[in-house]
Each structure stands twice: as structure tokens, then as C-alpha cells.
Design goal:
Blueprint: H1 7-14, H2 19-25, H3 30-36, H4 39-52, E1 56-63, E2 68-75, E3 82-86, E4 90-91, E5 98-103, E6 106-111, E7 119-124, E8 129-132, H5 140-143, E9 146-155, E10 160-171, E11 174-175, E12 180-185, E13 190-194, E14 202-203, E15 210-212, E16 215-223, E17 229-238, E18 244-247, E19 260-265, E20 268-275, E21 282-288, E22 297-304, E23 309-315, E24 321-326, E25 333-339, E26 344-352, E27 358-362, E28 387-388, H6 390-408
Antiparallel strand pairs: 1-2, 1-27, 2-3, 4-28, 5-6, 6-7, 7-8, 9-10, 10-11, 10-12, 12-13, 14-16, 15-16, 16-17, 17-18, 19-20, 20-21, 21-22, 23-24, 24-25, 25-26
Protein name: F-box protein CPR1
Organism: Camellia lanceoleosa
């Protein structure tokens, strides 16, 4: 029947299928495998999935008891229903990975808790594909002590994913500015240096990112003559033109710089500012209603950090804040949502260690389907070895065997 159906019709049909079905489809025939793994098909399927808007949230939590990272998908609805559990295949001797960011179903993970070892991975949990990034140019062994931050995002201009690493080398009076900047591109599989062009600011150590309008944003500061911080600002890096920029923070929130973080709230750049005092701890949330215009900063709400609440670290699509709450003397936290209108706190039923939570919007995609696992990661990763669970290796080998067998067989189903 496929002999009489135009290819564009098949593409329209296949791009409507869920991820699990498409993974099975690539074993049907050589022609189906070739079609589904093309960058064009992957992009078309991603666009259709994004438009469908399933409102999924990716949740990462870590248990000190099991020493294991847990990843799961939940519907961003009133009941926070669980959609599926994702099998995490990596192990690290440095306790756990840090999630840098998430874009089009692709996660950037970094094991950078110790400056001697630094492993980064791009991972698509929906199709169980990953790429190990090669060792960056600037390391402790090559340049000595440093502090750094990482950004991850998608460059829509050339349909490529980038990781940017901003490294401030240590000096006797503080940290050097401008920093060393290097970029990894998925299309090339390698790092390259970028000239920061006299960039005078300092991005805080492992500062959390907010990716918006094609740019990565971190909280940074302008160092004084002694090398110390002299007020907060937001540092941006455009993934397209690879240029740094600065956005001024809301008036009165510039000191001290280590009490703030950036996020995205209802498609607006937002700033979360923490205040500790004898009268009670608070967390206030600001949103920049017009991107790049400091005068458009608007205070959204303030949360009193009482009864175990630890602070805002993200948002749901309905505007509710995601927070952590201590639930026992054993320092076990629970993921909760806070409604700024009713001031009600809702338990979302996910627990973990105090610093283990990461939540972000998520869309299932086929990104990396056209690559072999670890294809760009065969270079040494700073001398550090990572272990992969055995069953993933078996499944990967089985998948390759099925595809090979399908290529050797006569395509009785017809060609597209």
C-alpha cells in the first residue's frame, strides 16, 4: 500500500505518533529507519509535539538512602499526575549530577562538584540516547583553581544545541575578569574558545541559569577594586551571536549578589530574591514584563519562609511557585507548590534530599535519534570514567541488531 501513498502523507502520519511507537517503527524497514532518523523529520515531530502542548514537567529528586537519582514526568495539572518514570543510566562518584538546563527534551548534566573532575552529558531520556561531551579546555590541571558557570540552550538560527562555559580563574585578590569562555556545539562535537571582548563582570560559582529569548541568563556582579562583589546584575549570553549582555536588576535588589537567582515565569525573565532577618525569612519574586527593559520589572509576590518552606526555585504554567518543604528531622524535603493568590501550599507527593530537586518544563522529542550513543564522547573526559547500567547496553546492542537485520531483509512492506 505504501507504493501508492506519497512520502509527504507518510511523514504527516508518522509525525503524529508518540515516541514509543516511532522507536518501534525504525525497526520495520530500512526506508522507515532512514526517514525517521533524518534531522528534518526529528524537527517536524518536535514542532508537532510542542504545538500539542501536553504540559509535562520533568522532576529530578535524589535520595540519600538509595544513593540514586530519580527522574519522572508529571502532568502540569491540578493533581500533578505522574506520566512516566525515566530510567537514569549514569552513575557518578561525586554524589549526583547537576542539571544545567533542559531544551526540546534534551537535558544537559554536569558532574562538576569537584574541580578536578568535570563530566558533562547531553541526554534525551525519552529515547535513551546520550552524548558525552569531551573534556573542556580549561581545567584545574591546565589553569589551576577557578570558579565557573554553565549554560545550555538551543540556537534556532542553525538548529543546533550549545553548551557555554564561563570560567573565572583565581587570582590573589579574587577571580579574574574577563573570564575564559568556551562553547560546545552538538553539530561539531567539540569545544572552541570565544573572546568575551573585555567582559568586566563575574558570574557566580555554578550559578543557575534561565534560558529565554535565545539567551542564557545568570546572576552575576561587578567586582570592586579588591576583587569582591559590588552588587548584583543579570548576565546574558546570546546563543546565536555569542555576545554577552547585562540586564539591571530591580531597584533595591542589588545587594548582596548571592541571595538571588533567575528563572522564567510565564515566559518572562524573573528574579527570585531571598532575604534573611531576625523578623523572618522571605522570598520575593519579580518579573520583567518587557524583556530587556529594566523599568518593566514588576514585583509579583512575596512568600514568608515559615513552617519549613525553603524558597522558590521554579514555576508552574499556572503561575504557582515550586518550593521545597522540610518534613522531618532527617532533612527530607517534599516538593510543594505555592499559590500566590490564596497563599495555599500543596504537597505534590515527591520527596528527596534538600538540594536534590530540579523541575522544568519538558517535551518528549527525538533529538539525538540520529546519533549513536556516546558518539562524540569517545574522547577522554578529564580522566574520569562513567559507568552505564548493563541493561541499557544490552538494549542498545539489541536495537542495533534489529536495525541491521531489517536492512538485510527484503523490504516486503514497500518503500516510501
Amino acid at each position: 500500500m505504501s507504493n501508492y501513498i506519497p512520502q509527504e502523507v507518510w511523514i504527516d502520519i508518522l509525525t503524529r505518533l508518540p515516541i514509543e511507537t516511532l522507536i518501534r517503527c525504525i525497526s520495520v524497514s530500512k526506508s522507515w529507519y532512514s526517514l525517521i532518523t533524518t534531522p528534518t523529520f526529528i524537527s517536524q515531530h518536535l514542532h508537532r509535539t510542542t504545538v500539542a502542548n501536553n504540559d509535562l514537567l520533568l522532576v529530578r529528586n535524589y535520595s540519600d538512602n538509595s544513593k540514586k537519582e530519580h527522574y519522572s514526568l508529571h502532568f502540569d495539572n491540578h493533581t500533578f499526575d505522574a506520566y512516566k518514570t525515566l530510567d537514569f543510566p549514569f552513575m557518578t562518584p561525586n554524589h549526583y549530577f547537576r542539571v544545567i538546563g533542559c531544551s526540546n527534551g534534551l537535558l544537559c548534566l554536569s558532574d562538576d562538584q569537584f574541580c578536578y573532575n568535570h563530566t558533562m552529558i547531553l541526554w534525551n531520556p525519552s529515547i535513551r540516547k546520550y552524548v558525552n561531551l569531551p573534556c573542556p579546555r580549561v581545567t584545574f590541571n591546565s589553569h589551576g583553581p577557578f570558579m565557573h558557570s554553565i549554560g545550555f540552550g538551543f540556537n534556532v538560527a542553525n538548529n543546533d544545541y550549545k553548551v557555554v562555559r564561563v570560567v573565572h580563574l583565581q587570582e590573589p585578590w579574587g577571580y579574574k575578569a574577563p573570564p575564559e569562555v568556551e562553547i560546545y556545539e552538538l553539530s561539531t562535537g567539540s569545544w572552541r574558545s570565544v573572546n568575551p571582548m573585555g567582559f568586566p563582570y563575574v558570574v557566580g560559582e555554578r550559578s543557575s541559569q534561565a534560558f529565554l529569548n535565545g539567551a542564557v541568563h545568570w546572576v552575576g556582579h561587578y567586582p570592586n577594586e579588591l576583587g569582591g562583589p559590588s552588587g548584583s546584575l543579570i548576565v546574558s549570553f546570546d546563543m546565536g551571536n555569542e555576545v554577552f549582555g547585562v540586564i539591571m536588576v530591580p531597584e533595591g535588589l542589588s545587594f548582596p549578589p548571592l541571595q538571588s537567582r533567575v528563572a522564567v515565569l510565564e515566559e518572562c525573565l524573573s528574579m527570585i530574591h531571598f532575604t534573611w532577618s531576625l523578623y523572618g525569612d522571605t522570598c520575593c519574586v519579580w518579573a520583567m514584563k518587557q524583556y530587556g527593559v529594566p523599568e518593566s520589572w514588576t514585583k509579583q509576590f512575596t512568600v514568608d519562609l515559615k513552617e519549613g518552606l525553603r524558597g522558590v526555585f521554579g514555576f508552574r504554567k499556572n503561575g504557582e511557585a515550586l518550593m521545597k518543604k522540610i518534613t522531618s528531622y532527617r532533612e527530607i524535603d517534599t516538593l510543594v507548590s505555592y499559590d500566590p493568590k490564596s497563599e495555599q501550599v500543596k504537597n505534590l507527593g515527591v520527596t528527596g534530599s534538600p538540594i536534590s530537586f530540579y523541575v522544568d518544563n519538558f517535551v518528549e522529542s527525538l533529538v539525538l535519534l540520529d546519533l549513536v550513543n556516546g558518539e562524540f564522547g569517545r574522547q577522554p573526559n578529564c580522566g574520569e570514567k562513567k559507568m552505564l547500567k548493563g541493561k541499557w547496553k544490552i538494549e542498545e546492542e539489541h536495537e542495533e541488531q534489529v536495525v541491521a537485520e531489517s536492512e538485510d531483509q527484503t523490504d516486503e512492506r514497500g518503500k516510501l
